[in-house]
Amino acid sequence: MSIAGKVALVTGGGRGLGREHALALAAAGAKVVVNDLGGSNTGEGGDAGPAQSVVAEIEELGGIAIADTRSVADWAGAHAMVDGAIAAFGDIDILVNNAGISRISVFGEMSEQDWDLSAAVNFKGVTATMNAAAAHWRKTGPKKGRAIINTASPAGLHPMPPINIYSATKAAVAALTISAALELAPLGVRANAIAPMARTRMLEGAPPEMIEMMAPREGFDPNSPEHVSQVVLFLASPNCPFTGRVFGTWGDDLYLFNEWSAAHHASNGGQKWTVDALEKASAELPRQDHRWTLFPGGRFEADMPSADVLNALANL
Ligand SMILES: NC(=O)c1ccc[n+]([C@@H]2O[C@H](COP(=O)([O-])OP(=O)(O)OC[C@H]3O[C@@H](n4cnc5c(N)ncnc54)[C@H](O)[C@@H]3O)[C@@H](O)[C@H]2O)c1
């Protein structure tokens, strides 16, 4: 079994990572629905151009694709784009939820619009396309080789200011992916998420040191988005054994995240907790979690919360 002949929907497939995913899937022989609203990085506006131009690129290379310019943030629209893929190509086998926006948001300064737009695209949109595909899969019954690839972010797994809401929506994507893996396995669906790092317009507004780190490099360029698409192809491939996992992907590096883990335990020995008892028992629990965090440039060991955060409280 291979990807050839399978039907794939790539949301946000008109630019950046999604464009690379659509091209890679088409080159592997999939029939691709290239969805893209064509909005701004912060979620405003729309333009049919990006989706249509990727379809034209695929067709020029001899592949099969159609464009869809609906917004994933619209529940009915997201269902219609999945139904459109099924109407055009007879099925949906591979769902790549890639569409996403990023808005600066820090507590005390965020607006309702920051929340509504971010949650609608990054979280509701992913839920809606998965719901639409699952409805079709439930109706048609079990079949091997179905795959969902959702796009989380290193920021979702290590939340960071000043993109608090973005981070939370991406954590939600990881949680949705794990739920889907548990729920949809009997229908032959594997669901995994990626936490990519690549040079796209999403870097607009990033700190200058990050932009510099992601700049093009001579020879092998780890920041080129094409590398992430190979991981998407692998996760879409019927031979891939993984489900319910989150993979960090940057250049030629692949990282596998651990889920939240109930790593430490305290007990009050069958007695009702009191604040005093909790203070005593929790003295044995670490204040910091030592972990691997993923940032452009690779993974780094870090304590969460950092010493700076604990010191800020201690030094008041
Ligand atoms: N570039 C990175 O380093 C990076 C890091 C972590 C996560 N991501 C995630 O990767 C995904 C792709 O981002 P990118 O970096 O390629 O950015 P990008 O802005 O180049 O591409 C995102 C695409 O999604 C489309 N889109 C936005 N809202 C949409 C909607 N409502 N409906 C349909 N399409 C919509 C946009 O028009 C755009 O073409 C996003 O989910 C992003 O959060 C990217």
From TrEMBL:
Family indicated by similarity:
Belongs to the short-chain dehydrogenases/reductases (SDR) family.
Family matches, as SUPFAM superfamilies: NAD(P)-binding Rossmann-fold domains
Q: What is this protein called?
A: Short-chain dehydrogenase/reductase
Specify the taxonomic lineage: Bacteria, Pseudomonadati, Pseudomonadota, Alphaproteobacteria, Sphingomonadales
Q: What's the superkingdom here?
A: Bacteria
Q: What keyword terms does UniProt attach to this protein?
A: Oxidoreductase
Q: Name one Pfam family in it.
A: adh_short
